[in-house]
Amino acid sequence: VKAGDKAGVYGALPEFTSTVTGYQYHDDSAKVLAGPSTYSLRDSTGQNVSLANIYAGTFSIVPALSLKSPASYIVNPVNGTLVVTSSVLTVTAQNQTSVYGAPLPVFTSTVTGYQYNDDSAKVLNGPTTYTFLDSNGQVVSGNNLPAGTYSIVPSLTFKTPVRYSVNAVPG
Q: Which of 88, 126, 144, 151 is 20 to 30 A away from residue 160, measured at CA?
């Protein structure tokens, strides 16, 4: 039994498939197999990984078959490969205004795109941070920004294993 190679995005994994070959005489899957193929996943170290704990990366798809009794065959599993890419979290900074010389306001943002039961506590390693860019795209820092209009660019830091990439929408 050979598992098919698959690719998917975290949160939208494909259905696993396999091909069974080597039947003899007039045998076929209905005569030999006790049910459909089942699959497990292993990481690069050979450790089992559940779908609930999957992350962006490459995994082995390990197929298994149950044979009807009496079994006249030996199952030789051939692993497939699953490549999981990151889902995208969109972090959108809220627009803010400030008066020159006054303390900067509290910056806020909205994060969307979580998959499964993920949330900020499970995925993010700390709060959203912000960078300020002037009209030329240059980073401006400090608590007393000169009068003007600035882009507020949000940034996220992830816990490992990483399951997401970021689409930052400035305010």
A: 151
pTM of the shown model:
0.78
Residues 6+ positions from 87 with CB-CB distance below 8 Å = 9, 10, 11, 12, 113, 115, 163, 164, 165
Which of 60, 123, 128 is CA-nearest to residue 86?
123
Tokens describing residue 104: 């900067």
- pLDDT tens-place string over residues 25-69: 999 999 999 999 999 999 999 999 987 778 899 999 999 999 998
Cα angle 165, 47, 54 (rounded to 5 degrees) comes to 25
Encode pLDDT of 59-118 as tens digits.
999 999 999 988 889 999 999 999 999 999 999 999 999 888 888 889 999 999 999 889
